[in-house]
Amino acid sequence: MYNPGFFGILSELGSLRGAGVESLQVRKVLNNNVIIAVHPEYGETVVIGKGIGFSRKQGDAIALDSIEKMFILTNEKAKEQYKLLMHQVDEKLIEVMNDVIFYISQHAGAPLNEQIHIALTDHIAFAIKRYRQHIPIHNPFQYETRELYPREYLLAQHVIDEINRRLGVQLPEDEVGFVALHIYSAITNRHVVEVKEHSRLVTDLIDLIERKLEIKIKKDSLDYARLLRHLMVALERIRRGERVEEPTKIAEIIKNEYPEMYSFAWTLMKVIQQRMQKPVYEAEAIYLTIHLQRMLPSEGS
């Protein structure tokens, strides 16, 4: 079970000083720019500042004036993972990642899951390693990610632009899609593996539709955008166990009018049911039938 924990960046350090907090105590130095400190109210916190860890030792007091950012990892497992990551990743990358995650938190419109500090930093470190080893990066559901998560995709573009600019690399556009999924995962408190699996499932369903209908769907078409959104919304309903109202009269019309598409819609529903291990209700097949019928080329085209 994914433990969402709590993630918060305390940018208004002046409010802490007003509450009588003038300094924090060093618990552990992770590198020159990141330390674990003890806050009187929040307990262990991750403290970030240029050179803040240099020549520091356990028990030293850190004045608030030297702190640039601070965040809290309440999940003990995440805390230990973060400490390990600090020893495996370049300090410059840590600095850049702290900055871009702070930017994401300011523009996400919702609290972020604390796991983003570990998952996204680890992902980018591996992406840079592949880039420097000239290993190609391909994102099979790049277009779908951009269509389904436009806000997260824009934030991810900023992240990749900053990383490329400040670290002197050229991570490709494909990485924007991967980062967008990490951001969506942090916003929705869902594990990034589950988010990626849903995106992969949507891509696989589109592939099945193209092969069954013997068509190549134009990805810039309105019908494709509608189909994508319908599939993702349907997956979300199925994931949450929500049952939409079954349109009894419409259902009978759809079954009689488009029996082949209705049968194929149920084939796709069975794929979803098997992959997600969740029950699927008839209304989902009815609504999908309508979208599938719309995808068929018109006569004479």
Automatic annotation (TrEMBL):
Domain of life according to the entry: Bacteria
Family as reported in the entry's similarity comment: Belongs to the transcriptional antiterminator BglG family. GlcT subfamily.
GO BP terms, alphabetized: positive regulation of DNA-templated transcription
Organism (species): Paenibacillus mucilaginosus 3016
Name of the protein described by the UniProt record: GlcT
Keyword entries, A-Z: Repeat
InterPro entries referenced in this protein's UniProt entry, alphabetically: BglG_antiterminators, CAT_RNA-bd_dom, CAT_RNA-bd_dom_sf, PRD, PRD_sf, Transcrpt_antitermin_CS
UniProt cross-references to PANTHER family, sorted A to Z: CRYPTIC BETA-GLUCOSIDE BGL OPERON ANTITERMINATOR (PTHR30185), PROTEIN GLCT (PTHR30185:SF16)
Pfam families given in the database record: CAT_RBD, PRD
PROSITE patterns: PRD_1, PRD_2
GO molecular function: RNA binding
Parts forming coiled coils: none
Domain PRD: 88-193, 194-301
